[in-house]
Amino acid sequence: FGFMSALEDKLENRSELFYNQVSPQNSIMVNPYESMFSQLSQHDILLSYPYNKFKNFLRLLDEAADDPYVSSIKITLYRVARNSEIVSTLIRAAENGKQVMALVELRARFDEENNIGWSKKMEEAGVKIIYGLDALKVHSKLLLITRKQGSNIRYYTQIGTGNYNEKTSRLYTDLTLMTSDKDIGADASTVFNALSLGTTVESSTTLLVAPKCLKSRIVEMIDNEITYGTKGYIGP
């Protein structure tokens, strides 16, 4: 991807070498004129890349960085862009006094140097960096924002299949879910607590977290589908 991206930049003035540009569209689930926190308090948002704009996710993170009611932002980073707007926003959040924690996977093949460089910049800004776990590679894409709402604490969670990378989101097919569901938020909080302690998640309610909660739950779900037989979802 790095080679193709560099080639695209070099040939940006040679329009005859490119197909017609197709741009991501705004999702009908997102109101561009309303706060992301306000929208997520009312309903979940599911985005499909590259068809929907990655900027909708960036809006959520951007709002969190400046929102006086946000106390913490926690995120897992696997591959980020060379000039990452996401990391720059995390740095701004830390400079604004938020508690920011980022797990950076240093074993992301071909991106080790980039990840190390960004980690140093984040640490200098006050971001708490966790450099992965010894026995496991953290490949999940998870964001947890903790925000005070009235007298209550509310979680805003993002779960995705794609990296937090503005450039690759224009190319790769991925899904991202943004939600204020309290059970999902509680599970995400459990994940980040385990990561900060260097341990694994022992049990969860909504999220299937490897290595201890994923396989058994999937097998259980498959067995449940089998019980439906030909009257259910499986069968001719």
UniProtKB/TrEMBL annotation:
GO terms for biological process: polyphosphate biosynthetic process. GO terms for molecular function: polyphosphate kinase activity. Residues 35-196 form the Polyphosphate kinase C-terminal domain. PANTHER family: POLYPHOSPHATE KINASE. It is an enzyme of class 2 (transferase). One of its GO terms (cellular component) is polyphosphate kinase complex. Its EC number is 2.7.4.1. Pfam families: PP_kinase_C_1. InterPro entries: PP_kinase (IPR003414), PP_kinase_C_1 (IPR041108). Keywords: Kinase, Transferase. This is Polyphosphate kinase.
